Amino acid sequence: MKRIILVLAISLYVGGCAQLQTLQSLAHFSTATINNPVTKEMEAQIELGFDAAIQILLSYRRACIAGNADVNCRQNIEIIQPYTRQAKPLIAQLRSFVDNNDQVNAVVAYNQLLGLYGNLKASAAAVGMNVGSLP
Amino acid sequence: MKINAQEILALLAKGLSALPSLIEGGTNVIDRINQMKKLAEDAKAGTVTKAQIDAIRAQTDRDLDEFNAPLPPKTA
Question: Which residues of chain A are within 8 Å of residue B24 when distances are taken between CB atoms?
Answer without folding.
Answer: 59
